[in-house]
Amino acid sequence: MRVTHVITRLVVGGAQENTIATVLGLRARHGVDARLVSGPTIGPEGTLEDRVRQEPGVLTLAPNLIRAVHPLRDWLALGWLTREFRATRPDIVHTHSGKAGVLGRLAAKRAGVPLIIHTIHGPSFGGFQGPVANSVFTWAERRAARVTDHFIAVSQAMIDQYLTAGIGRPDQYSLIYSGFDLKPYSESVNDPELRAKLGFGPKD
Question: What pLDDT is stored for residue 122 in this prediction?
Answer without folding.
Answer: 87
